[in-house]
Amino acid sequence: MTYIVTDACVKCKFMDCVEVCPVDCFYEGENFLVIAPDECIDCGVCEPECPVDAIVPDTEDEPDGKWLQVNAEYAKVWPNITVKGTPPADREDFERETGKYEKYFSPKPGKGS
Questions:
Q1: Which of 7, 12, 41, 77 is buried deepest, with most CB atoms within 10 A?
Q2: Does the predicted TM-score (pTM) go above 0.85?
Q3: What CA–CA distance (Å, rounded) separates 35 from 18?
Q4: CA 2 to CA 37: how far, in whole Å?
Q5: Cα–Cα distance between 73 and 90 in angstroms, integer?
Q6: What Å distances lie between residue 79 and 48, 101, 102, CA to CA?
Q7: How many CA atoms lie within 13 A of 28 on its CB side?
Q8: H-type helices in the chain, by residue range?
Q9: CA-CA distance, 67 to 8, in Å (whole number)?
Q10: How far apart are CA 84 and CA 87, in angstroms?
Q11: Tens place of pLDDT for every residue, the chain, 113 residues?
């Protein structure tokens, strides 16, 4: 098992999760974070830190494994992030919106840390 970041993170990117990760397995996109499945040690400390419940075990992924694939793909190309940055100023406007990945996801990398 591994943990994965899902749709709720898009355009919110609070980043509270990155500072508690003992193995630094978060990677930053322009408006989304992902977890590197091969690096995650399944400790679960990141899950309760997310204020929008975007982090779940991969056992709660969609039937087609969509989020595990997204996390694995972008963890290979985005920079690692280990320190909480500044969340988007308009994050509260998107906190409870659904279907954000299809509407707003950016494949561009973030700054990392």
A1: 12
A2: yes
A3: 10
A4: 6
A5: 27
A6: 23, 20, 22
A7: 22
A8: 66-75, 100-104
A9: 11
A10: 8
A11: 799 999 999 999 999 999 999 999 999 999 999 999 999 999 999 999 999 999 999 999 999 999 999 999 999 999 999 999 999 999 999 998 999 999 999 999 998 88
